Amino acid sequence: MTVVLEPIRVLIVDDHDMLREGLSTFLRAFPDMRLVGEAANGAEAVQRCRELAPDVVLMDLIMPEMDGVSAIRAINAAPPRPAIIALSSFGEEQLVRAALEAGARSYLLKNVSAESLAEAIRLARAGISSLSPEASGALAGRPEPAPELTPREREILRLLIDGDTNAEIAARLGLSLYTVKNHVRNLLGKLGVSSRTEAVSLALQRGLR
Prior knowledge:
This protein is an alpha/beta fold. 50% of the residues lie in helices and 13% in strands. It is built from 10 helices and 5 strands, in the order E-H-E-H-E-H-E-H-E-H-H-H-H-H-H. Helix 8 crosses helix 9. The protein is elongated. The mean pLDDT is 87.
């Protein structure tokens, strides 16, 4: 007799619409997984978990209204208690420890491959933890190497931290808007983040200013 397992019910939590859309597309590629809902912040995540009872939650950590660590703690305070995978752009020890201590089962960076994320979801439902190499290294006390930024990229990063727009940066530095956009795109890539907000947060955490 063949036992047919129900698809893994997954809830996606992230404040970036494009990332949620990308993860939704990713889930549709795996027949043993099903997207049951989305949330744009931690408060919504807590409510959706109560309403939808997912098996696994993919949880961003840096969000407005309620951050991911607080949401993980709130979700685990009462049943149903899904397996939570912290899916973050950051691998600093403090953030990794905070997420795991709040009750996250796994911790992965957003640059994880589709196959690795799918396997982590399957393992999470089975009660098995997964850690990205960066998260494991942070817990082992190995600092992440600082990204190699050019002097111009560091200059632009400082202006991003000051809150300048691309147009304001172009005016300050005497550059074209196109050139500034290229620098910002390269800067985000080197930092391993997907937005200006994440770049600023990471720069402040690592003292890159």
